[in-house]
Design goal:
The chain has 338 residues and is an alpha+beta fold. 41% of the residues lie in helices and 24% in strands. It is built from 13 helices and 12 strands. Strands 4-5-6-7-3-2-1-8-9-10-12-11 form a 12-stranded antiparallel β-sheet, with helices on both faces. Strand 2 and strand 3 form a beta hairpin. Helix 6 crosses helix 13. The longest helix has 25 residues. The chain starts with 15 loop residues before the first helix and ends with a helix.
């Protein structure tokens, strides 16, 4: 069905990540941003070689009411033990699409992407902007034709502006954008032309230095292995809301260590302190739960022992460090569960 063909990413419900790890619970409070962080990892389309070039190209398409922005340095991610361990499993997500593309099209997806930025819109649709390396439009079309032929279908193409329509078989349609002869753009639904059209249209109200997006970007280390920011729509928040109104986070993988931090901003210092107290109670509970887990308990215990949750004014900060081997021990059961 049309719904089955849509590209989507969801964190596994009921997994170790959701049930026990406080740091991940905190990340989960970022809503769509946390899910997109996982999608960024799965796409493997992030390296830092041309981050500035891609950012300068993509930023005009980011409106001041954007919900989330994600990117990172895939070079350090690719070199990490985490990626080396989980790359085969990540390839099998989304019905093994990445593996099919590499095998059928004779492409190395990591080598074909210089950098990527993911942006979610006010309606929570993720748009992916990938700066390609040595991958022209004709090569992309040939790849789609080869993928169609693998299923006994043909593929035809038409283009209007920066939007390319690929018709596979008699009626199945897939749309992607092509900017500046090297930037590939996809929306959250590959078969939805309208959503892609918005992704490749310059923002009427671009974010400026006074916007929440700009304020968070000023705090983010864009050289991190992965980073993201999230802004809650103003219409859904109030002075008394317990939900974070803005957030950003960073993950760094260097050598044998992994370090992460999440910053949550609330409507007042009182609400921030209340949430920090709640998260610290959950941290203590998670430590007790980890001690009962035969598979990953020792690793979780070490990670949670290094976790800290503090609050200053209206900001709550969660930090944690871990060895890559401990991180693998905690993450693996969640991937196996899926």
């Amino acid at each position: 069905s049309s719904h089955d063909r849509r590209m989507s990413c969801r964190l596994p419900r009921g997994s170790v990540i959701h049930r026990r790890t406080v740091i991940m619970r905190t990340l989960a409070s970022l809503g769509g941003a946390a899910a997109l962080l996982l999608c960024t990892f799965i796409s493997k389309a992030v390296t830092a070689d041309a981050e500035a070039l891609l950012w300068n190209t993509v930023s005009p398409y980011i409106s001041q009411d954007a919900r989330a922005v994600m990117s990172g340095d895939g070079a350090s991610l690719k070199a990490s033990s985490l990626m080396k361990r989980f790359k085969p499993k990540l390839f099998d997500l989304n019905r093994g699409l990445a593996r099919q593309i590499e095998e059928t099209c004779k492409l190395d997806l990591e080598a074909s992407a210089a950098n990527a930025v993911v942006v979610t819109t006010k309606d929570e649709e993720p748009n992916l902007y990938v700066e390609t390396r040595g991958l022209g439009l004709n090569r992309i079309k040939t790849c789609i034709k080869d993928l169609a032929a693998r299923k006994g279908d043909s593929a035809a193409f038409s283009q209007k502006g920066s939007i390319i329509q690929a018709t596979v078989g008699k009626s199945d349609k897939v749309y992607f954008g092509w900017l500046n002869n090297k930037i590939l753009v996809t929306s959250g639904e590959l078969d939805n032309r309208d959503k892609l059209s918005r992704a490749v249209s310059r923002a009427k109200k671009r974010f400026d230095k006074r916007s929440d997006v700009a304020a968070l970007l000023a705090r983010v280390d864009r050289s991190a292995t992965a980073w993201g920011l999230y802004v809650e729509p103003s219409t859904s928040t109030s002075r008394d809301s317990d939900k974070p109104q803005r957030a950003f986070g960073m993950l760094n993988s260097k050598g044998s260590q992994v370090a992460g931090e999440v910053h949550l901003f609330f409507a007042s210092g009182e609400i921030a302190a209340k949430n920090a107290k709640k998260l610290n109670r959950e941290l203590a509970e998670a430590k007790r739960d980890a001690a009962k887990d035969d598979k990953s308990g020792p690793a979780q215990s070490r990670i949670l022992a290094a976790a800290k949750i503090t609050s200053t004014e209206n900001e709550v900060v969660g930090t944690a460090t871990a060895t890559q081997s401990d991180a693998i021990a905690v993450i693996e059961p969640a991937i196996e569960h899926r």
